[in-house]
Amino acid sequence: MFPLMKTVFVKAGLCLVLASAGCADAGTATPAAQSHLAAPIHLTNCGLPVSVTAPPQRAIALEQNATEIMLSLGLADRMIGTSYQTDPVLPDLRQAYEKVPVLAKLYPSREAVRAANPDFVYSTYTSAYAPDAAGPRADLATLGVPAYLSEFACEKPADATQTVTFDGIFEEIRDIASVFGVPERAEKVIHDQQSRLDEARGAAPTAAPGAGPSLLWYYSGTNTPYVAGHGGVPDAISSLLGVRNAFTDASQKWPAGNWEEIAKRNPDVIVLADLTRGGDGDSAQSKIDFLRRNPVTSKLDAVVAGRFVTVPGSSMDPSVRSVQAAQLVGASLHGTAR
């Protein structure tokens, strides 16, 4: 399970002393948003201490995965900002999302974050806390603002949970719910997600251990393809479905591959990350077009047979979307077992 290694200090009635924002302007939670902590929450998050004595009322989620986890927990009324939307918001979260101010197209600057006067900041990506983004979590802590980071993406690799599991994702959801004093909501979300995982597992073909179809999880790039290695969401989904990740022997989660080695492994199915960045080999269709015209990849069994599965790029990162990727892949695997 995902260990509680997170640290944030949250104070009741926190007011940052900033020129651009003051206590008088701080938002007041609606009655529906009120909740209480049975006791202060103390976590150690990616090597930093995190303590919450009252449920945050002015939270910022710095990117889409963090935003959708909070929205799944019914916390839109506790959010004063979101940013960095990479995909269309999940349909069942769209209405709640539209109530949350968008602070920036990408990451907000540290000045923008401080001006918003938050009492909690959350991201599933280390890059959100870069000096040219929201700023280091330690700096926010000196202002009394707790800043949570996914255990899969700690600043120091030694502090991070090395292997992504669905149990680990569920523990992160529990952590966020506990911080906001709504632990029962986490259990509801997790129950739904686990039910969907069970359905995905049931939809996948049954094969003897190690005999299931092999999957190439193709994330991005054409000259240099980036594929899923060991320990990430694709590896967790492959294990769940009883199939083989073609590059699970790679030590990195997202190693740089080469087409000659991919041709040697000749995967049965190619799972395509559909990315919206607009770069070379980002969209699923651009990947398919490349695979079909490249002299090496056009001969792959999966390409000849058209065995492609498209999943949102963000679902390949640990989030509430990862279950969707498991369902899409599981439903597409019938008839591919060797």
From TrEMBL:
Which keywords belong to this entry? Answer: Signal
Q: Where is the signal peptide?
A: 1-26
Annotated membrane-spanning segments are: none
InterPro entries on file: ABC_Transporter_SBP, ABC_transptr_periplasmic_BD
**A Pfam family that the UniProt record links to this protein:** Peripla_BP_2
Superkingdom, natural source: Bacteria
- Fe/B12 periplasmic-binding domain residues: 58-338
Q: Has UniProt tagged this entry with the keyword Signal?
A: yes
PANTHER family named among the record's database cross-references: IRON(III) DICITRATE-BINDING PROTEIN, VITAMIN B12-BINDING PROTEIN
**Family label:** Belongs to the bacterial solute-binding protein 8 family.
Please state what the protein is called: Iron complex transport system substrate-binding protein
Q: Which organism is it from?
A: Micromonospora chokoriensis
